[in-house]
User: Fold this.
Amino acid sequence: MSNHEEPSSSHPAPRLTSLWDTLQTEGLSWILRRLRYRTPHSDWGRKIHACVRKIIGGVLYPKRALLQPLQPNLWDAHTLYAFYDLQVAPVTFDASWFAVAADRRRHQLGLPRLHFIIVPGTFHGFREERAHYETTIDTEARMWRLHNIVLPIFSLTRGFSGYSVLPSRPSVQWFFQGTPPIRYPEHYEPTLPVSHHPSELLKTTSPSPHQDTVSHLQSPAQGLRYLQRWANTRLRDRKLITITLRDYEFMRERNSNIRDWAAFAARLDQTRFLPVFILDTEGTLNPLPTELEGLEIFREASWNVPLRMALYELSELNLGVNNGPMFMCALNKQTRVLIFKLVTASVPQTTEALIASLGFEIGGQLPFATPYQKLVWEDDSLPVIEREFTAMMKIIEQNSIHSQHIS
Assistant:
């Protein structure tokens, strides 16, 4: 559930579930082109898709085996290769889910390294989107997002050993001559690519104390050094509280209640806490909302993903509404986080039905969440924010006292 799923536009979005709307706005040829690359949402659909990929791999294996003497292996047997195929994958913060799922698979296989392969799509290097998207988020904008959002997210995985951005889609075939590499998604085939799905992590049972079945993102050490230097001149024994805003022109109903967030920050005990706002990336260079004047703004985190993650890790508690950066934060088990406004019934991407189809339990919690990570299934009004903040701070402080007694 990303903050960058859709373009900045004042036009209403077509209903995601309406074939008739899509037929009217995009045409039959667009539907037929996209149908081949549609990633199923249902469990049975994904199982069938995986079986078809496996069959395709089996059919192509004899041809690939014949070519093996002509091309030495380009891969390492101790590395998992994660294929992020832009024919089906988004260039948004939702790449966090793919990154964690790939790293979990690496851990399960006992491999020390994870290497990401970026496979270009057939439409100017990306997947073909709806017309209203194409007119506002062009190829240059998506290329910027690839290099400034997606690739930095991949670097936050524990097994990260690098990434390769392929120059063309046909070049991916070099990886499949002879014996294909150990790859993710399992049985990945470029002729029938598959996108990641949050349910892969959301339907994972809680790990045992001896087996980490759900991996997580982590801040780079250098990012923490920079943030510590920044915090040393500002905190003065106070605790850092971040507020991540969604302030996007498209689907404004999902946006943060800036007035109440500003009121929450102003009402905090300034001798105990330092509230810091992270602006929406798309609006960081816009004039500052009047409600935020005089409050601490950390603009750098809006543009630098590793620095953003370091800020989240360093903070006592991170708060915000349902968007891509907040779920990236929650996929780091070192962070403490409250995510509000999970459902916005008037927006297709955040109805209860759509969220449930992704694997979320309506009213429930992330199955891999720590005691300091909570989904708040209410809107971000001031009373709700203050109630949840007080309750979580009580948990944090009680456990801190308990840990001190143990030590």
